[in-house]
């Protein structure tokens, strides 16, 4: 019984460490980026690639800052 | 839509009175804000990225605002071309502090608006598209008049 409890405790500690590591890695880089959606003149929708999405997001933030 | 009817009436009066296109554009943007209370600011840019009119408060750096919107429109056109289009109909960029919305106008112009974070963006875009038609007519008649 003691052996089982010990293993359970170890398992819990490992799961906790994994969760903490995941949260740490998801920090700034994984932060919610701006939601960008483009509707083309053809009616189709497009989502820009990561670098373009980043550009959109940065400029949009500045516009919102300026506009107040 | 009473506000749009108002815009048309004013446009007629202004055309009769010889008011400048810029004043008319400004009035349409103000009407958009009145129609859609969630619009924080609105601006219209010509094809070459020149800020033609806006509802920005005095003291706001209009040139910078216009340059930023023109940059967004430029990237949106590039993405549109990469995806088989020739331009964009509308763009929605949602940020923590609010949304930036663009509607592409005929002849390459852009109608831009900003909203707060909790705005009903779909409704605002609908109003922007309606107002966009009015702006296209104004910009189109201006271009026709210059020929």
Model description:
The complex is a heterodimer of chains A (68) and B (147). Chain A is mainly α and 68 residues long. Chain A has 2 helices and 2 strands, in the order H-E-E-H. The longest helix of chain A is centred in the first third of the chain and has 24 residues, at 2-25. With 147 residues, chain B is α+β, with helices and mostly antiparallel strands. Chain B has a 5-stranded antiparallel sheet with strand order 2-1-5-4-3, with helices on both faces. The model of chain B is unreliable at 1-18 (pLDDT under 50). In chain B, helix 2 (21-35) packs antiparallel against helix 4. Chain B has one domain (2-146): 2-Layer Sandwich (Beta-Lactamase), CATH 3.30.450.30. Chain B is globular. In chain B, a hairpin with a 5-residue loop joins strand 4 (98-104) and strand 5. The chains are: A mainly alpha (68), B alpha+beta (147). The interface between A and B is medium-sized, with 28 and 39 residues. Strand 1 (35-40) of chain A pairs antiparallel with strand 3 (88-95) of chain B.
Give the key terms:
heterodimer, A: 68 residues, mainly alpha, 2 domains, two-stranded antiparallel sheet, 2 helices, 2 strands, elongated, B: 147 residues, alpha+beta, Beta-Lactamase, 5-stranded antiparallel sheet, disordered N terminus
